[in-house]
Amino acid sequence: MSGVDPVRPGPLLGTAPNPDAALSVRGLTKRFGSFTAVDGIDFDVPRGQIFGFLGPNGSGKTTTIRMLTGTSGANAGAALVLGEDVLSHPERVKKRFGYMSQKFALFEDLTVEENLRFYAGVYDLSAEEFAKQRAYVLAMADLRGRENELTANLSVGWRQRLALGTATIHQPELLFLDEPTGGVDPVARRHFWDLLYDLASRGVTLFVTTHYMDEASHCNQLAFIYRGGLIAEGRRTTFAAT
Amino acid sequence: MSGHRIRLLMWKEFLQLRRDPLLLRLLFLMPILQLLLFGYVVAADVKNLSTAVVDLDRTSTSRALEASFGASDYFVITQHPGETDLKHLMDTGAISIAIVIPEGTQAALDQGQTAPIGVVVDGSDSQVASVGSGYASQIIARFNADRMASQGISVQAPGVDARVRVMFNPTLASVNTMIPGLVAAIVMISIMAVMGQAVVKERERGTLEQMFVTPIKPVEYLIGKVTPYAIAATVQLLVVALVGIYWFGVPFAGQLSVVAAGLGLFMLTSIGMGLLISLVSHTRQQAQQLMMLLLLPSFVLSGFIFPIDSMPAAIQPLSWFIPLTWAIQILRGAFIKGSGFEALSTQFWVLGLFAVVIFGAAIAATRRRLTE
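Structure tokens for the assembled complex are given below, as produced in the milestone run.
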């Protein structure tokens, strides 16, 4: 069985991508050989939203993020990220979004300070910007006084907050989070979502993938992906009613 | 491409290298250990053979003959057994060569007759046997010449006088051919080992994925990754070359530019092979095994340890497809013979072709893989 037809043809089908949205995706498709990982999906994410991208493992969530972050090409379709065509010119927009994956992807053999310094350098932060962001991240991640510890020695909750801090060190307008709370205990998860709300309140658009249905309640817009196709999409209240 | 980001990646790589004490120790212990092994064990010339002298003549001539054996570096006289004990000493390995001077040797010589001297060699080690008996006959010949000269007899005896002259490596010291080969081998081992492991490690940990959503470009990543290890390999090979020249006394007859060009091309080839390994391996163990699979035929077939000329004719063409073969020829040529670019042009063309093809393929494949 290959793919499941959308429950309803989306209202966006065939419309032009919206350059004002944080994310605007039309007919985005990715095939690996004869396997269609992502099958012509359409959605818009207005700026400032917390967009929940839900689906079981292997449904195409990570593949979609790879295409939207410019690390993987698409076989068909269009994708505007912050108004830029990310499929043909990923370098134009890479400085404006951040990305954090489920896997703790900081350098474990570098210290907290060195990780921050590395990513600040990658995003060309000036010395003042770095000093300001460093102070902010250390406070946010509760790591003040532990700057010279190797990140390998931090426990999961702290690592996760530090990962969030480095992913946002360049103050992105949009943040992709790929199953960010996998393997984290409920208290740390709660704390982590508080940090995400804080980012959202400052106008950052969040694109969060998860397979925990309870996390969907944190989002104000949702899309369900199943076997590469979007099967439902809309504001959270719509789903609460059904 | 941004020089700033490349410097940042190199800084990160050096920090990580510094924090990996095992890898760091390996990087510097490995060449030293290899030097000692190859310099003292593999390349050891036949020397200090345990020698027994069976003197049945007991005259001034026989004692003088024994003394000339004792004076050479090749023989150490450890035993003076009776004739019947020889076999036992040989069987137990206590001696590897025995000189038997029969009774009446001096008397025969005084009468102008030929006196036979027995040289008994342990043939179980063919190298000891051939080299040991060769040295023994040289010493006896020289002894003869000296004796005749001292008695005013002309040494210009009729007959063939074969004098073998060994070019380029007159002392036939194996270490002279071993060290240049070792320099190339170390470049290959350390670059391939580290390149293969480093990229796989970053993919396993997810840090690679994280870096490619940032403005870091694949080319910048590759340069930042490769440069620190190329520098480390350069330090390693300098240590090896300097220890080879100043400790083992390997002559350096050549031009530095020839050595540098040869090593540069070979480094690119090794970096390419390391990257290709890391692309096809999903885990570090796989990368490790794959490297062993490539290293073994390289060492055996390249002429590093065994001369290519002594391989079966059907096998010899295989050595052409091994980059190490050409690198070793360039280095040996430059070190020992002082060959320049002209004399080594074939080797340079072939190695250059390997460098372009392997490094180019690795960069292209890595770029594609990293961006997929």
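Strands of chain B lie at 49-55, 75-79, 97-101, 118-121. Confidence is low (pLDDT under 50) at residues 156-170 of chain B. Further analysis is deferred to the final report.
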